[in-house]
Amino acid sequence: MQNDLALLSTNSEHLISQNAKHTVTCNNPKLVAYSITLLTELVKKTKNRKLRTKNMKGQKLLNNTLKVNAAFSLFSGIDFIFFDKRIGRILSGGDFESLAPTGFILIGFAIFVLIVSMLKRVNKYLVGAIIAMDVLWVIGSTFVIAMGFATFTTIGLLLIPIVAVIIALFAFLQTKGLRTHLQST
Predict the structure, then answer these.
(1) How far apart are alpha carbons 129 and 133 in whole angstroms?
(2) How far apart are CA 84 and CA 50, in angstroms?
(3) pLDDT the model gives residue 25
(4) Where are any strands of DSSP class E within the chain?
(5) 40 touches 1 (CB < 8 A)
(6) For residue 37, what is the enclosing H or E element?
(7) Closest-CA residue to 102 (of 67, 65, 64, 150)
(8) Which stretches in the chain have pLDDT values below 50?
(9) Longest dimension (CA), the chain
(10) Least enclosed by CB within 10 Å: which of 28, 31, 93, 171?
(11) Residue range 77-104, pLDDT digits in tens
């Protein structure tokens, strides 16, 4: 690392920068060595700060995405519980008995995601489980529409894939945030 910072000339007591733009003449070899040590420490601190900043960006992206995911899931769950018949009519013309069980599951999921987002340390296994559940929701939505398990209205055929795309975006951003965080630690 010292070679990256500065080279100490063996012929004289000069501190010469790597790109040779700056030369400082000093007759005291101890002062030159001390200067090199200080510069080395400065570079180490700068590199550590950059790693911490990258780590914070990854964790910040991850935590923010998890919180938005939790809010989206919570509001969807509440809607599915209180407006289950209306949403059922909008999506399928009334084929669904009740969406309330799905609403309760979404509320439980939202609480879990919110708790994980508030942990001081990133737990890659819990975040991985959330990402997996998001991916399963996307696959399940695609499967339900493709296999025709219910007759969907035109609005239902539009809304279900839109929600799946939003959830896929959550999974993508959570994965990106987790990777960035893990690479910087």
Answers:
(1) 6
(2) 49
(3) 57
(4) 6-8, 14-17, 23-25
(5) yes
(6) helix 29-82
(7) 150
(8) 1-20
(9) 90
(10) 28
(11) 999 999 988 998 888 887 777 889 999 9
DSSP, residue by residue, 126-170: HHHHHHHHHHHHHHHHHHHHHHTSSPPPHHHHHHHHHHHHHHHHH
pLDDT at 65: 96
**Which tokens belong to 113?**
């995601």
Alpha carbon 115 to its chain's center: 15
- H-helix or E-strand containing 113? helix 100-117
| Residue entry with tokens 């004289």 | 12
Tokens encoding 23: 């030369």
State the Cα–Cα distance between residues 182 and 155, nearest whole angstrom.
40
Q: How far apart are CA 118 and CA 115, in angstroms?
A: 5
Structure tokens at 126: 């819990």
Instruction: Return d(Cα 102, Cα 163) in angstroms, integer.
Output: 14
- Let me know: does 65 contact 113? Beta carbons within 8 Å: no
- β-pair partners for 8: 15
Please report the pLDDT score of residue 14 as a whole number: 45
How many angstroms separate the Cα of 50 from the Cα of each of 18, 54, 182?
21, 6, 14
CA–CA gap between residue 184 and residue 38 (Å, rounded): 25
Q: Residue 143 corresponds to which tokens in the numbers above?
A: 């499967």
